[in-house]
Amino acid sequence: MKKYYLTAAAAIFLAGCGAESDNEADNSNNTEPNEAAEDTNEAADENEEPEEADLNEEASEEDASDADVIAHRGASGHAPEQTMPALEKAIEMDADWLELDIQMTADGVLVAFHDDEIDRTTDGEGEIGDHTLEELKELDAGSWFNEEYTDRADESFEGAEILTLEEIFEEFGEDENYYLETKSTYLNEDMEEPMVELIEEFGFDEAGNVIIQSFHQDSLQTIHDLNDSIPLVQLLWWEVDEETGELEEWLDITPAPDEMTEEDFAEIAEYAIGIGPHLEYYDGTEVIDETFVQTVRDEGFEVHVYTINEEEDMHRLLDWGVTGLFTDFPDRMQNVLDERSE
């Protein structure tokens, strides 16, 4: 599993400044531009050293066949999202990262839960932030999956608990990598500081096995101010105007993908080492393409696309050069990676 250290984050920052199908989804290789490597390639061509060129070509092919497997809410295509069964299955499937949405309870505890409302994935009602941890622990967060996906039902899922972030850290420790998202920060006010403190308590900031992502730019900037050694990823979601087809980022973080400038990338690079775009809008319109992926890579960022469940799309995005994919089915992506490495 890959680790992200301060030195790598700093290098990507400088480089940046220099220049769902089966489950409903939310809405790394460290590869930065290397001018020295480009100069070496040019010199190799001039001096007619084919062996060097062959090595570079092989490295490029290998890079296009590798990317981080990011288990979206755990292996949520196989088990109830963000519960222990989903996380354990993701680990069994050799996911590089366990992706977790983090919210706060009424009594200020960080828990792994996606929706603002608890109705969809538990037998409770109301907003998660209106319930204490004790109240949430009484809920059944697993039976809904058996009812929704009868072909993947398992009696052991019944009664699965909502997990605290601390419980997850204690259970898996430094053996696993955690990809955390600050959710609904307009509801979960000031969640950043306790999250950073918990990461520091476990030493995961120094170990390099935590990434934090968010759609909310101010949340990421707050975390960067608290601890600039934690790698951050700016999530982006472009909506498609039904009449004009124009793209607009829902929080006005950036312009449309093909309109982003060096200044737009430089602003994100002030706090983040990666960009997390989606491939399609709800109506099927593709909002990014290979040119965009390569532009983001050239600007020195990781590119982690969400949430990809079809193997055909995985192959295509890997061909484009993405460095990570969120998926509900980590086993499918492992199959794709295995095929490409043969």
Can you walk me through this structure?
By secondary structure, the chain is an alpha/beta fold. It is 39% helix and 13% strand. The chain is built from 14 helices and eleven strands. An eight-stranded parallel β-barrel has the order 1-2-4-5-6-9-10-11, surrounded by five helices. A two-stranded antiparallel ribbon has the order 7-8. Helix 1 packs antiparallel against helix 11. Mean pLDDT is 87; it is low at 5-60.
Sheet with the most strands? 8 strands, parallel, barrel
The first-to-last residue Cα distance is: 20 Å
What value does the average pLDDT take? 87
Q: What oligomeric state do the depicted chains represent?
A: single chain
Poorly predicted ranges: 5-60
Shape: globular
Strand order of the largest sheet: 1-2-4-5-6-9-10-11
Helix content: 25-40%
Order of helices and strands: HHHEHEEHHHEHHEHEEEHEHEHEH
Rg: 20 Å
The overall strand count is 11
Number of discrete helical segments: 14
Short characterization:
The chain contains 14 helices and 11 strands. With 342 residues, the chain is of the alpha/beta class.
Secondary-structure map with pairings?
Blueprint (H helix, E strand, L loop, with lengths): L5 H13 L16 H12 L3 H15 L3 E4 L12 H9 L4 E8 L5 E3 L20 H5 L5 H6 L16 H8 L5 E5 L9 H11 L1 H4 L2 E5 L2 H10 L5 E4 L2 E3 L6 E3 L12 H8 L4 E3 L13 H9 L3 E4 L5 H10 L3 E4 L2 H12 L1
Parallel strand pairs: 1-2, 1-11, 2-4, 4-5, 5-6, 6-9, 9-10, 10-11
Antiparallel strand pairs: 2-3, 7-8
Helix pairs in contact: 1-11
